[in-house]
Design a protein that fits this description.
The protein is an alpha/beta fold. It is built from 4 helices and 8 strands; from the N terminus they run βαββββββααβα. The radius of gyration is 15 Å and the shape is globular. It binds zinc ion.
Length: about 160
């Protein structure tokens, strides 16, 4: 069984580090599909843009901790999600910078939007529309920096 992690949208990121949180990193799209979530129609251009964002090149690297496996939807089972280059996306987190914060989502957010009609918060949609993937971004580094300053390494054992 895969463990399901569900967090309310726009809450502080604490995935696997609770009770610590990352300053300025907000959850989006960590759904429990069996409970209520916001649904709505999305423009197909928005999904296309997010699949562009998920391509990951040397300049723009939005994924954190890519795993070896593929994403797993609690309703559909293992899902194959392609980026706009037609490459399968491995299970990971997708971090999207927006003004002075970062939105952290499971890559499943693409599947939730496309198949389950999940409507992310307006700020997240804004972030996708406005993102410039020619600007350098290193989500892995952003993650490590925040982990270092979160108190996690000094937690009581
Ligand atoms: Zn599904």
């Amino acid at each position: 069984m895969q463990e399901l992690f569900a967090y309310e949208d726009i809450t502080d990121y604490s995935h696997l580090i609770s009770p610590y949180t990352f300053v300025g990193v907000k959850n989006v799209g960590w759904l429990n599909l069996k409970s209520d979530f916001q649904k709505g129609e999305l423009r197909s251009s928005l999904l296309r843009k997010l699949k562009d964002v998920a391509r990951q090149d040397e300049i723009f690297q939005p994924t954190v901790e890519p795993g070896r496996g593929f994403p797993f939807c609690e309703v559909c089972g293992p899902v194959k999600i392609c980026n706009s280059g037609g490459e399968l996306i491995r299970d990971a987190e997708l971090w999207i910078p927006y003004e002075d914060i970062i939105f952290a989502s499971p890559v499943l957010i693409l599947h939730y939007m496309e198949v389950h009609h999940y409507l992310p918060p307006a700020e997240y949609i804004d972030a996708i529309i406005g993102i410039d993937i020619s600007q350098p971004f290193d989500a892995g580094k952003a993650y490590r920096d925040r982990l270092a300053s979160s108190g996690w390494f000094h937690r009581p054992r």
